[in-house]
Amino acid sequence: MRLTLTTLTVLSIISASSAFAQTSVTGQPVPDATTSEKSGGQKAVTRPNTDRPDAGNPATAGAASSAKLEEGASSFTEAQARKRLEDAGYKDVKELKKDDKGIWQGNAMLNGKPAKVGLDFKGNVAAQ
Length: 128
Fold this sequence. Notes:
The protein is α+β, with helices and mostly antiparallel strands.
């Protein structure tokens, strides 16, 4: 009886360990993460876009101009798309419309200059 109880305890611990090993953490990419242009597109919906400009540094907008926007069914509402663009550093976002490919497109200002912007279903932001 004692051997059976010990065996069951050990098996329970082993099976619990494998469950912990399968969990994944999402969030900010590492600072030296490759851009979607270099990696061929974002591979996970939960991975934030590494191409969007830094709101604190408008000079990074050039990096976003070549981001790859991917077609797909977007679940972003207009308000969420607008916020995502504003978080990326764009101001005065106007005429925001979702096209037939699921990409939100509109006009905005960045560093005092007009820009056409886009947001795909994965949250990638790009100047177009």
